[in-house]
Amino acid sequence: MKGHNTIPMNEDYYLPHKATYPIVGSIGLTTLLVGFANQLNGHAIGSTLMLAGTAILVFMMAGWFSEVIRESLAGNYNHQVDISFRMGMIWFITSEVFFFAAFFGALYYTRIYAVPWLAGEGAFESTGELLWKGFQNVWPTNGPDSIGGVGPEGHFEPMGAWGIPAINTLILLSSGATVTWAHWGLYANNRRQLIIGLIATVALGFLFVFLQAMEYHEAYTEMGLTLGTGIYGSTFFMLTGFHGLHVTIGAIFLLVVLLRSLRGHFGHDNHFAFEAAAWYWHFVDVVWLGLFIFVYWL
After folding, report:
1. Domain limits of the chain?
2. 20: helix, strand or coil
3. CA gap 14, 82 in Å, rounded
4. I need a labelling partner for 76 at 20 to 30 A (CA). Which of 1, 13, 85, 224 fits?
5. CATH 1.10.287.70 fits 9-77, yes or no
6. CATH of domain 78-297
7. pTM confidence score
């Protein structure tokens, strides 16, 4: 790769000293959690604590990642350390898989079991009569008094699949192709292909987030669909909202990789940070396909 210098490799397994950033991260997460709890309970200090916790986390990540980059460029890491990084990323993505599996499981349980049971179907014929007489098995639902989105709690429209969601699906699939193309360029020592592929991927990622923000604005202002719109609204926004957060994180991750690529930090035999970002991006692609099928389409 033109302009790239081979990074020396340390023969010994590198152990960092004075690792204070995990402690700083714990403080930031605790502050953010306490602030969020106060915000939910209507306390004015909640928003201040949330901002403080977020600032601490940003400081922690910027400092910790910068330190890791400096150690990598200094040649402190050997092949065994590289394997440790890869195993750590694999287990991190595995934890994310189970995180989303819990929300998909909640959606599945609600649609396949809970709503039919409340309507007196299956093995719980008396459930509907005991809890909500006249409840019908209709999806989406805003509760027993708002079957199919119409009721005293207000009308809402379910989000259709063939608008912004379909466009966002095309965007994410395209971004998966561009990041793979950039990866091929890295292996081939083609700096131009690497940079162009990463620029396209980052741009598509932030475009996805922008379009999803437009979708949320339409849902809240025109469709009557909010986080408080019964079980449909809560599962819809929890699944799509957390996915949008992951896309944002992934796009920032790839942006940092792009900036490092511009400085010639990666070679075809030493580029774990790029691969970690690519793995994460493919993960959010797969999750979105599940969302599009089970949340928007079916």
Report:
1. 9-77, 78-297
2. coil
3. 10
4. 1
5. yes
6. 1.20.120.80
7. 0.82
